[in-house]
Design a protein that fits this description.
single chain, alpha/beta, 2,3-Dihydroxybiphenyl 1,2-Dioxygenase, domain 1
Length: 165
């Protein structure tokens, strides 16, 4: 049972267990903690169907609720993935956008359940928060034209001598 004071609850349309299995297979230090079945029929599930799933992603507790189609995910809430390098960006991007997911801009994507993610390499954040504001601006401008973030292209834009001229 969840013991944290605040636990994010993600609302799914009948696919909470499938989503929890996907997410826990994708991120290290992750697991399904419990699957709870509905004790009675309700507007979103029948008695005996999965009502909610408790799971841990990278050490954080989550609940996946089979709440029905009334409240789909929007980009107003997303999860940001801190990626050490391009290989990690590529791995998460492929997994999240594959099998029905979709690409957006600036490192944003949606998985097949409609949940929004930001797949962000550390180097991008380092450049965008650099005290060299011109380099930070070039890095941001480069990012604005991307879907999946390309670390080498961000590095090239940030360090570009021709951009300084």
């Amino acid at each position: 049972m969840v013991t944290e004071k605040i636990t994010p609850c993600l609302w799914f349309d009948g696919r909470a267990e499938e989503a929890a299995q996907f997410y826990t297979g994708l991120f290290p230090d992750s697991r399904i903690d419990a699957v709870h079945r509905s004790p009675a029929d309700n507007p979103s599930t029948n008695e005996g169907d999965v009502l909610f799933v408790e799971f841990t992603l990278s050490g954080r507790s989550f609940t996946g609720l089979n709440g029905g189609p009334l409240f789909p995910f929007t980009e107003a809430v997303s999860f940001q993935i801190d990626c050490a390098d391009q290989a990690e960006v590529d791995r998460y991007w492929a997994a999240l956008t594959g099998d029905g997911g979709s690409e957006s801009q600036c490192g944003w994507c949606k998985d097949r359940f409609g949940l929004s993610w930001q797949v962000v390499p550390r180097r991008l954040i380092e450049w965008m928060t650099s005290p060299d504001r011109a380099a930070a601006g070039r890095a941001m401008q480069a990012m604005m034209g991307m879907r999946k973030i390309d670390v080498a292209a961000i590095e090239a834009a940030a360090t570009s001598e021709t951009a300084n001229a």
